[in-house]
From TrEMBL:
<protein>
    <submittedName>
        <fullName>Deoxyribose-phosphate aldolase</fullName>
    </submittedName>
</protein>
<dbReference type="InterPro" id="IPR054574">
    <property type="entry name" value="Cgl0159_dom"/>
</dbReference>
<dbReference type="InterPro" id="IPR013785">
    <property type="entry name" value="Aldolase_TIM"/>
</dbReference>
<feature type="domain" description="Cgl0159-like">
    <location>
        <begin position="32"/>
        <end position="289"/>
    </location>
</feature>
<dbReference type="Pfam" id="PF22649">
    <property type="entry name" value="Cgl0159"/>
</dbReference>
Length: 292
């Protein structure tokens, strides 16, 4: 950590230099599958894993876990915000990896403006300039919130900007609502996930570079019909699956079934692999890779 701070203090240009010399690879390898580790949660103030409210708050610990995960066979890359990707560039951990920049993190967890998820992270020009491989954005639509229209429009323009640069963009859509207590929740029913996929697939002037990042439905048996909604390639997201070994095993089984579907091309999973219930990051990552 001391060396990272020293470089940032004295040689901030080292980050751009590291990006320029990074050895790149295609988005997909010969298998046509993707295994991406996600670490863009902290920038939205989402630091918790299960009952551990500040599990992701220790940056040195997070970076160590990320470097371990990226070193495991079958892990294709990482999704993160600029601060984390800059650290990983300086650590030399991103050579021959898919690097995905997280684009909108403005909807802070628990805030009154949480659903106003503005683009406060990587811009399309940043992803292009740094030689990164893709972008990711979160699209939560609340039918009772007029602000969702602004979110839809800004998402569409971001998709356009990525398509102009021939850069893939992974769209993570949800139908969301607030509980009576004000907490934002995502509807994982088959109907809601189907509707969110249909909405996301039609955004922008071209879908040529759009991928979907989708959850497994409440009833995993519904996924086959849900994924018939679009021909866009998709990856499964992990989310916070709980804080016990039983929860972890249940999540693996849900992913295993959905990964057999023709449009599903891989996994983008973060907290459940970086902070597994038993603490064994390597084993959690290896198990997820084995599902592919």
């Amino acid at each position: 950590m001391g060396e990272l701070v020293r470089i940032r203090t004295r040689h901030p240009e080292a980050i751009a230099e590291a990006a320029a010399r990074r050895a790149r690879r295609p988005l997909l390898n010969d298998s046509g599958r993707l295994m991406i580790v996600a670490a863009d949660h902290p920038a939205r103030g989402a630091l918790g894993v299960g009952d551990r409210k500040l599990a992701m708050a220790n940056r040195a610990d997070l970076l160590e876990r990320l470097c371990l995960a990226l070193s495991r066979p079958g892990v294709d890359g990482v999704l993160a915000t600029a601060d984390i990707l800059d650290d990983l560039l300086l650590l030399g951990a991103l050579d021959h990896k898919v690097v995905m920049g997280s684009m909108n993190r403005g909807g802070l967890q628990g805030a009154s403006f949480e659903l106003d998820d503005r683009f406060t992270g990587h811009r399309p020009q940043d992803i292009e300039r740094l030689g990164f491989d893709a972008g990711k954005l979160l699209l939560r639509v609340d039918y009772s919130d007029p602000g969702s229209l602004t979110t839809l429009e800004s998402t569409a323009r971001a998709i356009d900007a990525m398509a102009e640069r021939r850069l893939p963009v992974f769209v993570e859509p949800f139908i969301s609502r607030r509980t009576p207590g004000g907490k934002v929740t995502n509807d994982l029913s088959a109907e809601a996930v189907t509707r969110s996929i249909a909405i996301a697939s039609g955004l922008g002037g071209s879908s040529a570079y759009t991928w979907l990042k989708v959850p497994v439905t409440e009833n995993p048996d519904d996924m086959a019909q849900v994924m018939e909604t679009s021909t866009l390639p998709a990856v499964l997201l992990g989310g916070d699956i709980g804080d016990s070994p039983e929860d972890q095993v249940a999540a693996y089984e849900k992913w295993r079934g959905a990964l057999r579907l023709p449009t599903v091309r891989g996994l983008v999973v973060g907290r459940s692999l970086l902070y597994p219930a038993d603490g064994d990051v390597a084993a959690a990552v290896d198990t997820a890779v084995g599902l592919l």
